Amino acid sequence: MSRSAIPTLHELSVPGRHGVDLPAPDVPMATLPAADVRADCGLPELSQLDVVRHYLALSQRNFGVDTGFYPLGSCTMKYNPKVNEEIARFPAFAETHPLQDIDTVQGNLALMFELQQWLAEIGGFAGVSLQPAAGAHGEFTGLLMMRAYHHARGDHKRTRILIPDSAHGTNPASTTMAGFTAVELPSDERGNVHLEAVRAACDETVAGIMMTNPNTLGLFEEQIEQVVSLVHGCGGLVYGDGANMNALAGIARPGDLGFDVMHFNLHKTFSTPHGGGGPGAGPVGVSARLTDFLPGPLIARDGDSYGLAEPKKSIGRVSTYFGNFGMFVRAYAYIRRHGAAGLRANSEHAVLNANYLRVKLRDAYVVPYDRINMHEFVCQGAIDGTGVRALDVAKRLLDYGFHPPTNYFPLIVPEALMIEPTETESKPTLDAFAAAMHAIAQEAKSDPTLVKSAPHDTPVRRVDEVKAARELVLADRVKVG
Amino acid sequence: MSYVPHTNAERSEMLKAIGVADMADLFPDVPARVRFPKLDLPRPVSELDIAREMRALGGRNVAVDPSLSFLGAGAYHHFRPAEVDYVLSRGEFYTSYTQYQPEVSQGMLQALFEYQSMICRLTGMEVSNASHYDGATALAEAVLLALNVAQGKRGKIVLSPAIHPQYRAVLKTYLGGTHAATIVGDEDASADLPRLTSLVDQDTAAFVIQSPNFFGQCEAVEGLADAVHRAGALLVVVTDPIALGLFRPPGSYGADVVVCDGQSLGIPPSFGGPHLGVFAARMAHVRRLSGHLVGETVDADGRRAYVLTLATREQHIRRAKATSNICTNSAVCALGAAVYLATMGNNGLRQVAELCFHKSHYAAGAIGKLKGFTVNPQAPTQTFFKEFVVRLPHPAAEVNRHLRERHGIIGGYDLGRDYPQLRGHMLLAVTEVNTRASIDRLVRALSEIAR
Asked: How far is B201 from chain A (nearest CA, A)?
């Protein structure tokens, strides 16, 4: 593999080169307002072949699920079916404009209506809004609804949101954005949120709790029913972080456990691609007492036709138009392909794969909560007496051709490696990964420098993050023309 | 079980290794009361059937010929070079996630760095993040940034009514979470820029305008930034990325934050999403920006490399004190926009912008000559780009029905939906994909209902 830097677009640019062939104006030219017209917009000038080769070269320096095993905990990096990519690009979907008259987009509305219904059924909720664009956006939406719910009851005392210390960082960040104060709760020795801490925190200032279940240790909260009942008992609501729903589809419905609101990550559980960081989609499901507060418009059915409906006390829009429709198309096709039995089988195999890896790795790495887990589990990456840390193990995995697990999260486990294999990985892949992990544990003892200086076989070696943050070069400095 | 690869033999072996008898034993902690619900979902279809079924569902939409659509209002039909989708279809890109492991993410990191570079040049700003969800949420985060800069000492936001109504709605939802902020300006739909500017005072955190505005008009921005800065506020500008191919960028007239929806840059309308939130600012605000930032650095051997930087602003590090909760963004759309901008290049984007300018003026000129139709009645002499307002002799819904049913044309946006005083007005968009023949067809169709 060539390791020389790939020139940037601006370095490749040659003034006068052009990449597209646009038609000359077929209408009379209007007079441009000279004073407002810019001389140059500073974009590079390249041929089409330059552009294609550039991005092909870049793609070869990027690792996706299509490249190899990607056990990034809490991210559910499962296979993204190609047929869904094809379908989302059908002009009948992709070329429709969001402000067209609703009688011209009945297919799109039918699709969204069904998806609302299906997600409500899968999660056990009374209503769903598809609008939030991502998981964190769904959290923010849910918290605003919780706030609106309390205020609508004339209850303005509730300013606190309880959040276990194992939660994703988005939970407290969303809490602050929604104007609440985050209160961190400790975990108990079995990895559950500490029930006594929940009990002690519950009072008339609690707006609700944010529970990730299974939690980020991959454990189903053993006292979830007591937690829900304590929070409801003090007048609070229960928010579910749906990031780990890939363990639960067809296994248990958060709504049946008493959750009042939850976001779904369509890009996790329902296989819409992660896109190098996005776009995702974060629909929210709610219990009956919150349906009036959902962001509108919702899709409503009237006989054979579909229209838009605004919930009575809606918190308002959280994004333009309907949200990330292209993701709805993919998720719809995915649910349609699976049906109830298929979704349950997905979750079962996701859990099977994670437990299998846990037992395969526990001889070489400390598994702090070594019991039946759900779709992911956490082990510790530090190898005793060698100085090798989780980060080193993660980097060495790159040399073996695997994407590393999430590392240093959750924060409550030192040297955490959080492993989520997903259901679409086969036993031979899991065995190969486990073999690599064992080999690295051996290397840590026989040649710790090899591990600590990894990776060795990647396009670049460890990068200088301190320099990046100190010198802050955030845009290409090469001048064009 | 379509994408699950396990054979029965493998499954048994794995269960045995774990020490359980069957799959149901993997869920001992799930309360029996709720375990294994019977889900009421339709029976699954095969991979062969799914495309057929989805095609039928799409067939329930009226097929749109983009050259015969004149609907814009924030989402547009533009030419998309084939290179864009070719690159977006690379699995190495679209099946990856956020670049937490830079050694195997250099491709996406460099692509996003180049995206940031091009957005900076296009907007005239110093720093761009690696994308936000859409234009409206980017605007909401820009206002949160301004409130953050004001550190609780200023809570007033002056908002132009000529900003996309849905952007204003999203902003108001975002501010619903106690940020002690009040919005003024947009309650009076006819407030013009001088009047809005007079509202900017010592309590103002941000003055927010859109140019070209929701009605397609370029605002008179000369001297605006000075007035805003004298009061100690920030100037936040919502813009159109295609217009930036032609007009002076907001950075050149003193904007502090520039946001827009990047859908026009190679991304299909897709019924409103996913789109791309573009977010650019002055370097002074870099530590208050939301979202990922890619920075240039070197690797252990001194080679140029890229990495996510200033993560200490972000939720996974700062948690409750983060500048924003954003995690997943719109990276693959940013990649698409980058490929678009690289392919169009300096001259191509200018050409697209000029085509939009000339064609929209041609259409406006012809429609303005029809009896009963008035173009841009509220601001007849102001420069406009790509979109313009038409006062109609009939209700907008009736005009659109006539266009569609008789002529197969998707008409404009009914402005009465958001602006009561603009009942009977529509907003028409004309881009490079609308041919002279299609514009002439629109004008003929409208002439049938002239009076």
From this structure: 25
In chain A, CATH 3.90.1150.10 sits at 341-466
Is B155 within the bounds of a domain? Answer: yes
| Chain position carrying tokens 């499954």 | B11
| Best residue in A1, A69, A100, A256 for a mutation probing chain B (most B CBs within 10 Å) | A100
Which pair of structure tokens corresponds to residue B105? Answer: 């993410």
pLDDT, averaged across chain B: 96
Q: DSSP character for A295?
A: -
> Of B339, B372, B398, which residue constitutes the final position of a domain?
B339
Residues of chain A with CATH 3.40.640.10: 84-338
Residues of B in contact with A169 (CB under 8 A): 314-319, 322, 327
Q: Which residue of A has its CA nearest to B270?
A: A94
For A84-338, give the CATH class.
Answer: alpha beta
> Which ranges constitute the DSSP H helices of A400-452?
427-446, 448-452
- What letter represents residue B253's amino acid? Y
Q: Which of A37, A337, A425 sits opposite B2 (nearest CB)?
A: A337
Tokens of B53: 């079924």
Distances (CA, A) of B38 to A124, A223, A341, B321: 11, 23, 9, 42
Strand partners, B128: B280
Q: Cis before residue B249, ω within 30 degrees of 0?
A: no
Q: For A285, phi and psi rounded to 5 degrees?
A: -110, 145
B274 interface with A at CB cutoff 8 Å: yes
CB atoms within 10 A of CB B259: 31
**Least reliable range by pLDDT among A350-364, B219-233, B305-319:** B305-319
B311 and B188 within one domain: yes
Reported ipTM: the value is: 0.98
How far is Cα B341 from Cα B357, in angstroms, rounded to an integer? 19
- In a domain? residue B96: yes
8 A C-beta contact, residue B372 and residue B395: no
Per the listing, tokens 């709605």 go with B169
- Give tens-digit pLDDT for B181-195: 999 999 999 899 999
Among residues B304, B339, B374, which one ends one of the domains? B339
pLDDT tens digit string along A36-79? 999 999 999 999 999 999 999 999 999 999 999 999 999 999 99
B21 part of contact set with chain A, CB < 8 Å: no
CA distance linking residue B406 with residue B394, whole number of Å: 16
Tokens of A442: 């051996």
CATH code of the domain covering residue B122: 3.40.640.10
Q: What H or E segment, with its residue span, contains residue B182? A: strand B182-184
Specify whether the CB–CB gap between B361 and B355 falls below 8 A.
no
- Per the structure, the complete domain to which residue B403 belongs is given by 66-79+346-447
CA B167/CA B210 separation, integer angstroms: 10
Could you tell me if B304 and A477 are in contact, meaning their C-beta atoms sit under 8 angstroms apart? no
Pick the CATH number of A341-466 from 3.90.1150.10, 3.30.750.44, 3.90.1300.10, 3.40.1440.60: 3.90.1150.10
Q: How many structural domains are present in chain B?
A: 2
Q: Contact A372/B20, CB-based, under 8 Å?
A: yes
> Any idea what the CATH number is for the domain that residue B392 is in?
3.90.1150.10
Q: B237 and B317: one domain?
A: yes
Same domain, B243 and B384: no
